C-alpha cells in the first residue's frame, strides 16, 4: 500500500461524481476550463507549483502542476502522470447514476476516473507531506479526444525530462489490464469533386463524385490486414444533394491504425496515391496523415509494468497487461523513448458508448497502485 492515505472507494466516488457531473465536451472550452480551475485551486492550496497554459484554436486550457522538493528528497528527473479532462459527450447526452457495482456517466471511464486518480494522488501526497523518490509532474489536458492538437508539444516537453510516464487511461477488458503497447493512429480526409447534371435528361454530362468515392472507399477497405495489425475505417461519409442530381461533391474521413511506424508511412502513402484526376472526369483530393506513433512494448516498459503489477499484487489484485488498438497520449511519450505505462485508470467498460461505466468498488485499490508508483519511481 502507498504511504499516502487514499481513502475508501465510497469517498473517491463521491468526489469523482462532481467531476463527472461537471460535463466537459472537447468542444466546450469554457466548461473544461471550469473543471481545470477547480483542480488548479486545490493543487495550489496544497503547495503545488502550477502553470496554466491558455487554450488555443478553440480548445480549453492545459494545466501543469509540480511537487516541490522536500529536504533533498524528491530531486532528479520527475515522474510525469498525464490525463485529459475532455470527453466525447455533448452536454446532457448521458447522466450520472449508480447501479450496484457500476457507476455510469459521461466520460467516467474515459477518462474522468483516471484523471481524478492522478489529481487526487498528487493532492494527497502534498496534503499529507509524503516524501517521494522523485518529483512529480501532473499534466491535465483538454483536447485528447480529437488527437491532442494543442497539447502534444506540451506533453512532449514535459516527458522529455521525465524518468517515466504514467497514463491513467481506463483499464481494459474483462481482465482489467493495463497497457504496454498501442497501435499508431492516423486520420485522413478524402474529398471528391465531380460534375453536376440532371440525372435523367443529361446523365452523360455528369461525373458522379459519389461513385468515385465508393471506389476509393473500397480500395481503402482493401488495405485492411488484421493479421498484420492494420485497420482502416471510412466514416462519416457525405455526398450529393438530391436523387435527380448527379453529385458534384462527396467525401469521407478515414481512420487508420497500424502496429509499426513503417506501416503507417506505407499506408498513408497508399491512400495519398489515390488522389488526382480520375478517368470519369472526377478528381480526388486527400489530406491528413499519421497522428499518433505506435507505442511499442520495450524492456523498459516491461520493467515499469512489473513494478506496477507487484504493487497491485500487494494491494490484493492481479494486473495483467495488454496491447490495445486505440491511441492515447502515451503514444507520444513512448515514441520519445521514455518508459511509459498506460491503462492505469478505472476498471469498467463502454468508452464512447451509452453504457460507459466504471466498477466503482475498485476505485481505491487502483488509485492506490497509481499513487504508490508516484511515490516509488525514480532514477
Q: Main attributes?
A:
five-stranded antiparallel beta sheet, 2 domains, 379 residues, alpha+beta, Alpha-Beta Plaits, Aminopeptidase
Written account of the structure:
Helix 3 crosses helix 9 (363-376). Strand 1 (49-53) and strand 2 (62-66) form a beta hairpin. This protein is α+β, with helices and mostly antiparallel strands and 379 residues long. It has two domains: 9-182 and 294-376, 3-Layer(aba) Sandwich (Aminopeptidase), CATH 3.40.630; 184-292, Alpha-Beta Plaits, CATH 3.30.70.360. The radius of gyration is 23 Å and the shape is elongated. The protein has helices spanning 9-21, 29-45, 108-127, 152-160, 209-221, 261-272, 299-315, 330-335, 363-376, and strands spanning 49-53, 62-66, 79-84, 97-99, 102-104, 136-141, 164-166, 178-182, 184-193, 231-239, 249-258, 276-277, 283-292, 321-324, 340-341, 348-349, 357-359. 32% of the residues lie in helices and 23% in strands. The two termini are 21 Å apart. The chain has a six-stranded mixed beta sheet with strand order 1-2-6-3-7-15, with helices on both faces. The chain has nine helices and 17 strands.
- Would you identify the regions where 5 or more consecutive residues have pLDDT less than 50? none
As a percent range, the share of strand residues is 15-25%
Shape: elongated
The CA-CA distance between the termini, in Å, is 21 Å
CATH superfamily of the largest domain: Zn peptidases
CATH class of the largest domain: Alpha Beta
Would you tell me which CATH topology of the largest domain applies? Aminopeptidase
Report the mean per-residue pLDDT as an integer.
96
